[in-house]
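Justification of resources, computational component.

The compute hours requested in this renewal are based largely on the per-chain cost of generating structure records like the one below. Each record pairs the submitted sequence with a full structure-token output. That output is archived, and it is also reused by downstream analysis tasks.
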Amino acid sequence: MNTTPPPLPAENATGAAIEEQLGRIQQLADQAASEGLYGLQDVNLLLAEALQENPSAAEAADLLTLLSTWHELINGYRHQPLHGTQALIEFLRHPQLKIPLTEDEFALLQEQLVTEPPCFEAQLPPTDDNTATVAARPEQETESGTDPASVPVSPVAQELVDLLLLESERVRTYLHSIIADDKNSVGTGLQQAQDELERLVNASVTAGFEGLAAICVHVGNNIQHFVEHLDSFNSARLDLLLIWLNRVTQYLSTFNEADAGQKILTGLTDAHPDGWIFPLPDEEVRSILAQMRTTSTTVGAQSEPARAQTASDDDVSLILPDDVNPELLELLLHELPGHTLQFSEAVQRLQFGGDNRDIELAQRVAHTLKGSANTVGVKGIAHLTHQLEDILIACAKARKPPGRALTGALINAADCLEAMSESLSNFSPPPDDARAVLQDILDWANRIDRQGLSALDTDATQSAARTNVTRTPETSKNPAPLESQKPRIRVASEHIENLFRLSGESIIVNSQALSNSRRMRTQVQAMQRQFTLLQQLADELEQLIDLKDLTGRAIDTSDQGFDTLEMDQYNELHTASRRMAEAALDAREISLDINKELTVLSEVLDDQQRLAIETQEEVMQTRLVAIATIAPRLQRSFRQACRLTGKLSELTLLGENILIDADTLNALIDPIMHLLRNAVDHGIESEEQRLLLGKPQIGAIVLEFEREGNNIKVCCTDDGHGLDYAAIRATALKRGELQPDQAISEEQLQQLLLRPNFSTRSVTSQTSGRGVGMDAVHAQIIAQGGSLILNSETGKGLTVTMTIPLPLSLTHALLIDTGGYRLAVANKGIVQIYHAGEAEAITEEGLEQLRLEGVCHASVKLDDLLHIPEQRRSQRPYGAVLLVKTQGQTTAVQVDALIDSQDVVIKSLGRYIGKIPGFIGATILGDGTVTPVLDLPELLRAPTRALDSFHAQPMIQAKLETTLPTVMVVDDSLSQRRALEQLLEDAGFKVLTARDGIEAAELLALNKPDLLLTDLEMPRMNGIELTAHIRTQNNRNSRLPVIMITSRSTQKHRLMAEDAGIDAYFTKPVSDQELLLEMQHLLEQTQDRGNQVA
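The structure output for this chain reads:
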């Protein structure tokens, strides 16, 4: 029986009470440290340090009131760690405590508390409300009573109580935020507390606590009066509200006791100056007590509906209700994979040294899943998680992990939950064994109901399908927090696609701007060269004027008495030449300034291009997913294979944090699961065989993911017996694919496994053989442009390596010319680039090869791969060799010329153009040209017949076409060259230009034009001299048709041209029509002569 202590002087009694509270808090800190809960220890130590100060008597009284809730907050944290953490942090933030922590330090402390949920209940006795305040208010009476008998509290009732406790803590949080001397703080805090109190009333009515609801309404009326009359509210009335909340907490903790209602009503009927504005009338007290007695016998004694004995198909149904809330469904689908994964990891840890923390984590996740599924209306998940939660609660009470048999059942249920999650997300059909799994869990739950906690010790023999479950190595046994602390937003996929498209367009437009900037710089540099030439000519002109006296009259200097030796004499010509020289110099300086500005512009555009590429890469990240997202499916498939085969094995996943495209990842799931089933079924030996072979009892399978450039490599390695080459050879002989006396290597035998329907198994089982279906895996990988390699060592295991290219949207490409076309070649598969001069052509066994750095490689011309018609192929030797690696072999690909390399954005060819082997899309170059993008490894792998089918019709058409005739225009006048160039290009000619005879002769050494147009008078070499030079050559150009266009119309000039070998002579201005007709006539004559020679 509690008795009131003798009265003490207020100051001494208060100090003693604080010392007592300090001792309790230090004990809590020690207890937390002994449990390894260092975050909770820090919280208590911080509070203890704050109590070391010597507050005044008034402050101490308020402090005692505040501390009266600390023990309940600790227990609230035990029941609801996430919400309890927030309550603890809010308590420490109370201004009266003056704890010197920054916001970052509070955040770190909160994170530490969340990540180490407690597994103990505070063992200290709760602080009585009156004990906390008796020193400050000796006139208040303490409650006396006995420990009455109580009725059992069902799990349902306890869950309702926990919810009400949580609501009451929210009211307490707002009351703690009130500063009694600040009216704004009082008004805001009371209003917020009033709002939360209304929620507590509603929750109490819903939970069946009618008496508590009536009391909360009465207290709410008082708070409403305080809100309307802030002057009537003081620190004493704040203490009054906090004391009442303490009694609410105490009542909810002991509501099933006979006198629980009497305690919460204490003080509510008192009327004094600092007490309740509206005391509770006596008649209402009797009514409320009657309601509370009913609550203690109904809510406390109520039991859950009888547990089902048999699972039905409806119990595992995943059909959504017609009135499902789309927002809630989207939230469930977003959170479901993470929760099911955490549940699976927690129950798997139980089989290999897990502790009570894993049980509590699994129980919390099951509870969360149950609530979410019930909210949305997913019966299958709700029913299964409900039974799982009950089992895990029993395990938590027993303080020990479940036995081997129950652990196997829990893992099976975890697999089923993951399969249900994938089915709801439309990744796979509903699990076929869902009803059987639920039935097994029901059997366990009913067994625990009948036998109590002793049922957890049952460890009956069960099938290997239940017990032989693998585990993934864990870096830490501490469970991770349920959700990431990083904020996230959900965006529709079409918005991401539009952002991705716009970022690609931005890169293209910026590339065009860069290209234009480079062309402008080239033109400015050409202009600078012209200005330099102009400056030289101006200097030469000045020298000529100075040397030759061309003036008609001398400057009159007789008045000054100077002769020409004593004073320079100038006329208008002198002045004009000097001005021209100065203008040329000024223009050159301006061109230099323009070049500097263009350089700066190019640097800005380079930065802009880099930012555009980084933007696209960031947008691409939103389309990527971690390989870890498919880990649960792989592990589940692996565990199922272990159960079906009765083998013990362990799966290790490496590189699961690598991000790849979602479509590529989904396409990998089936091949990988097939390889895992093969590894278990045919690679790993039985337990007895492994022991005889001196191997570990548990088999090891390693699945490693690795990013190699634009490829993803997957290696599946087991430590089993490897490939049975004798069985493979026997099967090949039986199928007629091998002759009895035929020699064949192990590598060739491995390739036989990749042939359709090739299997060494004589009996079909639920798991695949190393040949059955392996051809399908190989076909899937090849269809994605990848490769599959087998590497086996007898008695030590098999390694299957799959390499799959990732889809490209932005890649580095080589720009090449071939057959008159400009193409972009993606750098995928290109090992090295050689100049054609570095390669030595050889022929071995009738096959063309190239020797590069002493190594011979198979050789192929890109023109042949693309079926370029002969008449379009360049007559010049190949300029570059690309060494390309595909399917483990290297091929030397010869190309006409390597022009440039740059990053290109790959665009789809559209739905109107089917898949063409070797072409991955098209890109837009800086000059606006649309260029195909080649994938050389795919082009080399493409069957010849497939390429022929794509190119047969274009080849027939190409034979009917002729290449465009080439015309060379030679004129020293820029305007005349451009005018002729435009005219001829519009007429369908390919045009080369030269400024004089010397430049034309240099171009003729590299090109073979069909016609030449030349001016007569030009610097360095005129038209007559150029024609004479051409006619003296011993090559095809010696018979090149030449047309002269000049302003000289005399007969003398015509005869000179005819003697030089000019075929046609036109005087300026020339008629376009006449010129084109004459050109056509000369071209026809040349073609006729060629036919006659042929």
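Residues 493-553+573-621 form one domain. The CA atoms of residues 187 and 227 lie 6 Å apart.
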